[in-house]
Amino acid sequence: MPPASQGPPDDPGSDPLIDSAAQLAELADLVARGFLSPEEFELQRRKVFGDAETSPPLRKESPHD
Question: What is the pTM for the complete model shown?
């Protein structure tokens, strides 16, 4: 039997998006406290959402866009 904190994959109470949001919140906290660089946060964010290979790096929009 799986631990109580991890339900079966079809369990409506186990939402991977919520887990992802919690993981990103932890990473953001590490950035705020200086333990993680913003660049590393971005890399980890891409890994969490599974788009590490497909997402272009974030860029600041220019006024010409």
Answer: 0.51
